[in-house]
Design a protein that fits this description.
- The complex is a heterodimer of chains A (129) and B (162).
- Chain A is of the alpha+beta class.
- Chain A has 5 helices and 3 strands; from the N terminus they run αβββαααα.
- In chain A, strand 2 and strand 3 form a beta hairpin.
- The mean pLDDT of chain A is 93.
- Chain B has 2 domains: 61 residues, Orthogonal Bundle (Helix Hairpins); 75 residues.
- Chain B has 162 residues and is mostly helical.
- In chain B, helix 3 crosses helix 4.
- The two termini of chain B are 41 Å apart.
- Chain B has 7 helices and no strands.
- Classes of the chains: A alpha+beta (129), B mainly alpha (162).
- Chains A and B meet through strand 1 of A and helix 5 and helix 7 of B.
């Protein structure tokens, strides 16, 4: 199956790969996994508590090219967005941007789940602080 | 349920392995196609079909995991499509170690061996629980976890030639 150019670009040059201190109260961590295999996606956001703006986003994904591209794109989109704007990102936005074929839609779902999990982790921490 | 009916058994999650084997041999003899060589075409076909069902049924029912999957499915339970969240952290670490090893860093090997042993122990403990659990929701949760762990073990074993 042919990958779109955008998928290949993100796969070959993934943006924002890495990891942040997950004990940092301004960092939210989302970890999600694919059901059938060991594919796993970790996505982190660093939020400015005063403005609610995501100042940094990092990811590390073990999985196929589409899963890597989906999470790479997600971190690009997350930077500079408010937490609420981030929650509005839909997996279909990722599908459209990357021209993912139907069999790879679950990769975009995983990325959306990872965003939601990271934000919810941040919110929980913020509520406690 | 067809596979249980083939042996004249009431559908149940647990069953007596010796009794099952006895029933399989008895019925396989009874329906052996050789005994129908002079029977009508319809009877010959029936013998072939029964033999095939008995083989499939025996293969499924004698294996506790395959049996539980069959039993759940026949009772309308689907295996859910979700990775066990409590394992994700560990799976992430496992993938990091696999990546290091693939990149030629052999120091990750002991960690992988340890991880494989831990996953094998998890699988065995699930198999143990499957023999005693009767609640179908619980059985489903066990089978989901088991399938996920089985795939992990396979991935580790692909890079760890013993």
């Amino acid at each position: 199956m042919a990958y779109s150019e955008k998928v290949i670009d993100h796969y070959a040059n993934p943006r924002n790969v890495g990891s942040m201190d997950k004990t940092d109260p301004t960092v939210g961590t989302g970890m999600v996994g694919a059901p059938e295999c060991g594919d796993v996606m970790k996505l982190q956001v660093k939020v400015n508590p005063a403005t609610g703006i995501i100042e940094d986003a990092k990811f590390k994904t073990f999985g196929c090219g589409s899963a890597i591209a989906s999470s790479s794109l997600a971190t690009e989109w997350l930077r500079g967005k408010t937490v609420d704007e981030a929650l509005a990102i839909k997996n279909t936005d990722i599908v459209n941007e990357l021209s993912l074929p139907p069999v790879k839609i679950h990769c975009s779902v995983l990325a959306e789940d990872a965003i939601k999990a990271a934000i919810s982790d941040y919110k929980q921490k913020a509520a406690k602080a | 349920m067809r596979f249980y009916e083939a042996f004249g058994l009431e559908p149940a999650l647990s069953l007596d392995a010796e009794d099952l084997k006895k029933r399989f041999y008895e019925r396989s003899r009874k329906w052996h196609p050789d005994r129908f060589s002079r029977a009508s075409a319809a009877e010959q076909e029936k013998a072939l079909e029964m033999t095939a069902v008995l083989n499939d049924a025996f293969r499924t029912l004698r294996d506790p995991v395959a049996r539980a999957e069959y039993f759940l499915k026949e009772n309308g339970f689907e295996l859910s499509k979700e990775a066990p969240p409590e394992l994700l952290e560990e799976v992430f670490e496992l993938n990091m170690a696999l990546e290091e090893l693939r990149e030629g860093d052999d120091s990750a090997r002991p960690q992988l061996i340890e991880a494989r042993n831990r996953f094998v122990a998890m699988r065995d403990s699930i198999d143990q629980s499957l023999t005693t659990t009767t609640d179908l929701e619980e059985v489903r949760a066990l089978l989901n976890r088991r399938r996920y762990i089985r795939n992990l073990i396979r991935e580790v074993e692909n890079v760890l030639p013993n």
